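Researcher: Let's do a round of design. I'm pasting the structure tokens now; please hold your answer until I've finished.
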């Protein structure tokens, strides 16, 4: 009985050391952390003449500021057919900052929009230069029945 209690103590100590080592290694400087997401939220649509004005909340929780961040956006009507394709510049996007960007979807009634797709990030640049695959950094949400996706 004494031997099995000693094994439990030794196993618990070994497990504790493994967890502690893993936590230390995870927190070491120089270990690459994945880049933080740029969160895009479709917050509001309002009719402005023959265009639909869209309000996009852009949250950048990370430490990277972006001097270029151009979205390739596709607007679908309520039946799922492509209605418009737009290029939208969100920059400048400051580090650790939330902003609202407003853009018009020309010759489109807001009530006719079924969904909006962030098809790609066409141009993305931070202080280190151009960044490839910035679309991987984007997360989307919507406060409206109109979905925003990527």
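Researcher: That's everything. Go ahead.
Model: Designed sequence:
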């Amino acid at each position: 009985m004494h031997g099995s209690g000693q094994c439990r103590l030794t196993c618990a100590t070994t497990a504790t050391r493994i967890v502690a080592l893993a936590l230390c290694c995870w927190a070491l400087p120089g270990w690459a952390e994945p880049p933080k997401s740029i969160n895009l939220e479709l917050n509001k649509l309002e009719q402005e003449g023959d265009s639909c004005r869209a309000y996009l909340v852009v949250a950048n929780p990370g430490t990277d500021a972006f001097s270029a961040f151009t979205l390739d956006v596709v607007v679908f009507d309520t039946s799922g057919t492509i209605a418009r394709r737009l290029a939208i510049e969100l920059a400048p996007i400051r580090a650790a900052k939330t902003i609202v960007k407003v853009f018009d979807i020309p010759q489109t009634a807001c009530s006719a929009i079924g969904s909006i797709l962030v098809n790609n990030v066409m141009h993305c640049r931070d202080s280190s230069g151009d960044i490839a695959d910035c679309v991987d950094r984007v997360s989307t949400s919507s406060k409206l029945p109109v979905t925003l996706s990527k």
